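Researcher: I'm preparing a figure for a lab meeting and need a structural model of a single chain. I don't have an experimental structure, so a prediction will have to do for now. The sequence is pasted below. Please return the structure as C-alpha cells so I can convert it later.
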Amino acid sequence: MLSSLQLQAIATLAARRAGEHVLANLHRRGDANSILRSDVKHKLDVEAQQTATAVISSSFPGHAVLGEETCDAPLPESDYVWIIDPIDGTINFFHGLPWWCCSVAARFRGQAIAGAVFIPELNQMFEATFDGPALCNGQPIRVSQTDRIGLAMLATGADKWDLGEHAFKFMRKVAEIAQRPRILGAAAVDMCMVAAGKLDGYFESGIYVWDMAAASLIVERAGGTCEILKAYPDHRLCFLATNGLLHAACRDALLPLLGPAQPDRRKSPG
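Model: Understood. Here is the structure written out cell by cell.
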C-alpha cells in the first residue's frame, strides 16, 4: 500500500485545485446545465471534477476515479479508488451561500486511507489519514463532548423527492430528540463541523458515497463515529455521523423510521 501521507498530499491538492477553479469562476454561479426544483446541474461541477481528476491521474494514472459527475461510467480494476464530489452543496453555491465544498477521498481495497474537504469561500481545509489526526488548516480538531441528546445540535437534510410523510418524518424525529436541528445543505461540510466539535451529529436518509467518503474519515479520526444505517443501489446511503457519545441515542431513534429504498434522486423527473 502506498504511504497514507503520499495519498493525503494528492487528495488535498486535488480538493484545493478544484476549489480554486470554482473560486476563480464565482461570476459563473448561474452557469447551470439544468435547474430543477430538487437539484442544480452546474457546469462548474463538471469542470471541478475534471480539475481534481487531472491532479490524481497525473500522480497515479492506474488508479480508478469515481466522481459524482461520471458515476455511471465503469471503473477500471484497481486496488485504489478515488472518490470525488466536485461541489457538495451545489444549490447553496448556485444561490451564493458559501456553505459548499470540494471533497476528495482515497480508498485502498475498500478502506478509506486519506481524505480532504476544502471549503473555498471559508478558506478551510479539513484533512485526515486513517493513521493520523484530523486537521483543519493544519491544526488538530476533535469532536464535541456533548453527551445528552437533548442538548445536542444535529444537522440533517431535506429530501425533496417525496414531500409527503417520508420527507418530514426524519426531520421531525431529529427536532424531537435534539436541542436544535439544522438543515445546512452540504453533507460533507456538515460532517466536518461534527469533526470540529461545532455540531454534535449529522444524519441524512439519502446521500451518496461521494458526499461522505472523505468527511466520514475526518469525523472518525477526530474521535467521532460514522455508520451506514442502510445502503441502497446507485451509491446511495442512509448515513449517521456523531461525536460518538450520542451515537447510540441517535441510531436508536432513527433506525425504526427506515423503510424501503427510495428512488434515486439523480434520476428524478424535471
